[in-house]
C-alpha cells in the first residue's frame, strides 16, 4: 500500500502541529490520487501512536482555507450529533483536525504547502476493490449515514472547493477543449476512446438539468464516495468513518451513490488493464442499494431513487472523461504510477460503463425492491 520514499521533510512538518508527542518516523501512505498522505509514528510516554499528515494538492485545491473551514464545520457537526445520539465510538466515526501550533486546523510549511493532521483511525482500513457483499452494504450505509449526519448542517452553504465538480456537462466541455488543444499530440492514439465518450455526451447533462430545474434537491454531499474513502472495521467489517472530505459541499445524493457503483461493483481496481475482467456485478449493486437505502431511504425523493441505476453509469462516464482529459493534458491532475496510467483508467471506465448499460433494466428492478 505504501511506497518507501518521503518527498517531504516529515520531522519538520511534525513541528508545525500541536502534537504533544515525539515524532519518530513517517512513510507515504494509501493509494489516493490527489494529496500527499503520510502515516506518522509518534512516541507518547513510551507508547507508539499514529497520525495522518496530509499535504493538500495545490494544483487541485486552489482555496485550501475555505476547504479546511468546510472540513472543520462538517467534522464538528458530525461529532456533536454522534455524541448526542450516544454513539460510544463517536471519536473514530468522524475525522478530527489536530490543530497547528498557530491554533488553525492547517499549517503552511516553508514552501507554502498546506498541511493538515488527523488522528489515525485504528483497527480499520480502506479497500481499493471489494471482496464481499457485506463490504458493499457497509460502505454504502456509511456514505448514506454521512449524508444524514450532514443534512442539518447550519450556517451558510459550504464553500465550493472545486467549482462544477460533478457538472458532467462541463466535464465534457473540458474534454472537448483538451482534444482540441492536444498539446502532447496524444489524441491520434485515442480516436476510438474519444468517439466512445462523444457518443455519450448528451446523457451527461441529465442530472445537471434536473438540479437546475429544481426537480431534484441540492444537499450536502461527500462528492468523492470512492470505495477507498470509507474505512471499514477490521473486526466487525462495519463502516467506521467516511474520510477524504475535501469535496464535501453542496451536490446531489445521486452523484454519491453513482460513485459507489463505479468503485465497488467491479471485481478489479479502476486501472485494470485486462478489460475482460471488468463487469458490474449485480449482487454487489444489490448490496450497495440495500446498504445505502437503509440509511438514505428516509430522506431521498422518488425522483432521486429512480436515478440511482443511471447514476452508476453517469459517474463512470464522468470519471472516464476526467481520466481521458488528463491523459491528453499530460497527466497533470491525477497521480500516475506508470506511463499511460490515465489511459488504462479511461479504458476500464469505458468497460464498466458498457457493463452497466447492458444491465440497466435489472438494476432498476433492484432499486424498486428496496424502495
Ligand atoms: P486522497 O485525496 O489523496 O485520496 P485520502 O484523504 O483519501 O487522500 O487519504 C489517502 C488514504 O490514506 C486513504 O485511502 C486511507 O487509506 C488513508 N487515510 C486517510 N485518512 C486516514 C485516517 N484518518 N486514518 C487512517 N487512514 C487514513
Ligand atoms: C480522486 O482523492 P481520491 O483519490 O479519493 C478524485 C475523484 C475521482 C477519483 C478517481 C478531488 O479521488 O474525484 O473520482 O480520484 N478526487 C478529486 O479515482 O478530484
Ligand atoms: Mg481518497
Secondary structure elements and pairings:
Layout: H1 10-15, E1 22-28, E2 36-44, E3 47-55, H2 64-84, H3 90-93, E4 107-108, E5 114-119, E6 124-125, H4 133-150, H5 168-181, H6 191-198, H7 206-213, E7 219-221, E8 230-233, E9 239-242, E10 249-251, H8 253-264, H9 282-296, H10 302-306, H11 308-329, H12 341-357, H13 360-370
The structure holds adenosine-5'-diphosphate, 2-acetamido-2-deoxy-1-O-phosphono-alpha-D-glucopyranose and magnesium ion.
What characteristics describe this protein?
single chain, 371 residues, alpha+beta, Phosphorylase Kinase, domain 1, Aminoglycoside 3'-phosphotransferase, Chain: A, domain 2, 2 domains, three-stranded antiparallel β-sheet, 13 helices, globular, binds adenosine-5'-diphosphate, binds 2-acetamido-2-deoxy-1-O-phosphono-alpha-D-glucopyranose, binds magnesium ion
| Rounded mean pLDDT score | 96
CATH superfamily of the largest domain: Aminoglycoside phosphotransferase (APH), C-terminal lobe
How many E-type strands? 10
In sequence order, what are the helices and strands, one letter per element? HEEEHHEEEHHHHEEEEHHHHHH
As for the number of domains, it is: 2
- Gyration radius, rounded: 20 Å
Distance between the termini: 38 Å
Query: Structural class of the helices, strands and pairings?
Result: alpha+beta
CATH architectural label of the largest domain: Alpha-Beta Complex
Strand order of the biggest β-sheet: 1-2-3-5-4
| Count of individual helical segments | 13
> What small molecules does the structure contain?
adenosine-5'-diphosphate, 2-acetamido-2-deoxy-1-O-phosphono-alpha-D-glucopyranose, magnesium ion
Beta content comes to 5-15%
Q: State the CATH class of the largest domain.
A: Alpha Beta
Major β-sheet profile: 5 strands, antiparallel
Helical residues, percent: 40-55%
- Uncertain parts: none
CATH topology of the largest domain: Aminoglycoside 3'-phosphotransferase, Chain: A, domain 2
Q: What would the principal axes of the Cα set say about the shape?
A: globular
Amino acid at each position: 500500500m505504501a511506497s518507501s520514499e518521503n518527498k517531504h521533510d516529515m520531522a519538520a512538518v511534525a513541528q508545525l502541529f500541536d502534537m504533544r508527542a515525539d515524532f519518530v518516523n513517517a512513510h507515504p501512505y494509501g493509494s489516493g490520487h490527489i494529496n500527499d498522505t503520510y502515516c506518522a509514528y509518534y512516541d507518547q510516554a513510551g507508547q507508539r501512536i499514529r497520525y495522518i499528515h496530509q499535504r493538500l494538492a495545490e494544483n487541485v485545491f486552489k482555496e485550501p482555507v475555505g476547504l479546511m473551514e468546510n472540513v472543520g464545520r462538517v467534522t464538528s457537526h458530525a461529532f456533536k450529533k454522534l455524541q448526542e445520539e450516544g454513539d460510544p465510538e463517536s471519536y473514530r466515526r468522524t475525522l478530527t483536525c489536530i490543530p497547528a501550533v498557530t491554533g488553525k486546523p492547517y499549517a503552511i510549511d516553508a514552501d507554502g504547502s498546506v498541511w493538515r493532521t488527523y488522528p489515525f483511525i485504528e483497527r480499520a482500513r480502506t479497500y481499493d476493490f471489494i471482496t464481499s457483499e457485506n463490504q458493499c452494504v457497509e460502505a454504502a450505509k456509511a456514505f448514506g449515514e454521512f449524508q444524514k449526519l450532514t443534512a442539518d448542517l447550519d450556517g451558510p452553504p459550504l464553500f465550493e472547493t472545486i467549482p462544477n465538480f460533478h457538472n458532467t456537462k462541463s466535464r465534457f466541455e473540458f474534454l472537448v477543449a483538451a482534444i482540441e488543444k492536444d498539446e502532447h499530440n496524444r489524441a491520434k492514439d485515442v480516436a476510438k476512446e474519444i468517439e466512445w465518450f462523444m457518443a455519450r455526451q448528451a446523457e451527461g447533462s441529465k442530472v445537471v438539468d434536473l438540479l437546475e430545474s429544481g426537480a431534484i434537491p441540492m444537499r450536502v454531499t461527500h462528492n468523492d464516495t470512492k470505495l477507498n474513502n470509507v474505512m471499514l472495521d477490521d473486526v466487525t467489517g462495519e463502516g467506521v468513518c467516511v474520510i477524504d472530505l475535501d469535496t464535501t459541499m453542496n451536490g446531489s445524493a445521486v452523484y454519491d451513490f453513482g460513485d459507489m457503483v463505479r468503485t465497488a461493483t467491479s471485481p478489479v481496481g479502476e486501472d485494470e488493464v485486462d478489460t475482460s475482467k471488468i463487469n458490474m456485478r449485480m449482487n454487489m449493486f444489490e448490496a450497495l442499494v440495500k446498504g445505502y437505502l437503509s440509511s438514505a431511504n428516509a430522506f431521498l425523493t422518488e425522483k432521486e431513487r429512480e436515478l440511482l441505476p443511471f447514476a452508476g453509469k453517469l459517474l463512470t462516464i464522468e470519471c472516464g472523461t476526467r481520466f481521458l482529459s488528463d491523459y491528453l493534458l499530460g497527466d497533470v491532475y491525477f497521480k500516475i504510477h506508470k506511463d499511460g496510467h490515465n489511459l488504462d483508467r479511461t479504458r476500464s471506465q469505458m468497460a464498466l460503463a458498457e457493463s452497466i448499460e447492458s444491465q440497466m433494466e435489472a438494476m432498476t428492478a433492484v432499486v424498486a425492491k428496496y424502495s
